[in-house]
Amino acid sequence: MAIARALVNNPSLVLADEPTGNLDTKTSVEVMDIFQCLNEEKGITVLLITHEQDIAQYGTRIIGFRDTVIVVDHANQRRRWAKREVEELAALAESA
Predict the structure, then answer these.
(1) What residues does each domain of the chain span?
(2) What's the pLDDT tens digit per position in 12-59?
(3) Which one of 48, 49, 70, 81 has the minimum C-beta count within 10 Å?
(4) What is the SS3 assignment for 18?
(5) Per-residue pLDDT tens for 48-68?
(6) Nearest to residue 36, comparing CAs of 60, 15, 2, 3?
């Protein structure tokens, strides 16, 4: 619901602060799929704030802070693709 509210005014930027913090793995991957689709299909920039390294891997760029100082800033060379993972999770559920 929060994602829908954020999209009402057709923003060019979505700020997502710990969007998967209280979610199970499947739902977290589905949320990341939504964000990746918004970026790829609509050109919306998604600024994702997270403490979870695995969730950060869905982004195109990783920027890390420590004590308000940027300590990491690089393109993500090992980007995860949520759409593929959603499909894999669905296949696993079907086979179980």
Answers:
(1) 2-95
(2) 999 999 999 999 999 999 999 999 999 999 999 999 999 999 999 999
(3) 70
(4) coil
(5) 999 999 999 999 999 999 999
(6) 60
Task: Report pLDDT for 41.
Answer: 95
Give me the torsion for CA of 58, 61, 62, 65, rounded to 10°.
-130
Nearest to 96 by CA among 60, 45, 88, 54: 88
What does R_g of the chain's alpha carbons equal in angstroms? Answer: 14
Query: 2-95, which class in CATH?
Result: alpha beta
- 58 and 32 Cβ atoms separated by less than 8 Å: yes
Q: With contact defined as beta carbons under 8 Å apart, do 14 and 35 qualify?
A: yes
Enter the pTM of the model: 0.88
Closest alpha carbon to 29 in 92, 71, 74: 92
